[in-house]
Amino acid sequence: REFFDLQDKATQANTAGEAAGSPAEYKKILSETVLPAWKKNLTNLNEMETLNMSSTMKGEQEKLKKYTVLRIEETELLIMAQDSTTESNTNAIDEVRIKINEVLKENKQL
Known about the structure:
This protein has helices at 2-18, 23-48, 55-81, 87-106. The chain is mostly helical. The chain contains 4 helices and no strands. Helices cover 82% and strands 0% of the residues.
């Protein structure tokens, strides 16, 4: 449950940040709210690896971890992009978002 609560917090903050108006405000929201939420989810997922889980649960944990790592990568790229307008940042963000969308297609519960 905490995973999905943190995911909602991160996505809502990201949406609010995009509408914030200035790159500095958006960067602050990404750095102080969005990224910490995704990193907390990754920590929780890593801690799950110590549990005795069924193969089905282990598979679900691995899918969530892959998704979370991609969200962290996306957020870090968005933070860097606020200081730069280079096309390489945009391309890198687009590539990560394609990967995220692929994971989402495979995993309807996300």
